Amino acid sequence: MTDPFYQGTATQITGAGLKQAAIIDLNGTVVGDSNNLPVANTEAARLISDYDNPAFAQTNGVVMGGIKYTTVVANNASIYGKIGPNGLSGMVSAKSVSHVIIGIYDSSIPSGNAANEVEKIAEYFRTNGV
Fold first, then answer.
1. Could you say which residues of the chain have pLDDT below 70?
2. pTM given for the model
3. How far is residue 53's CA from residue 107's CA, in Å, rounded to a whole number?
4. Rounded to a whole number, what is the distance in angstroms from the first to the last CA of the chain?
5. Handedness of CA 112, 10, 97, 90 (dihedral sign)
6. What is the set of domains in the chain, with CATH numbers?
7. Which of 95, 75, 114 is nearest to 23 (CA)?
8. 44: which residues sit within 8 A by CB, 6+ positions away?
């Protein structure tokens, strides 16, 4: 079940040019999404686990919305992945105190801009204990 605050936040992310967005709590529940990013329970659980073991994400990639991304950044705060022969599309995720913010982008927005949008929300959440 989505929450209006998190739903609005996900919509803010797609309003900045990302294709899809979702916010999940650390139990793996989608609390907000924009443009129907399908986050399977297994995908959410694996992503949350990857923050505790970034080397696993780096080695095995990340699956989100049924799409496997090659991991390009993996640490305890952020996990990014790219797809396609030129790597112009991908996913960015960032962990806050109690949530993971996920953004999916395509070639219409530079990867750095996509990462900045997601990281900005994660930092706001961290600063406010969310």
1. 1
2. 0.96
3. 29
4. 18
5. negative
6. 4-128 (3.30.450.30)
7. 95
8. 24, 28, 29, 30, 100
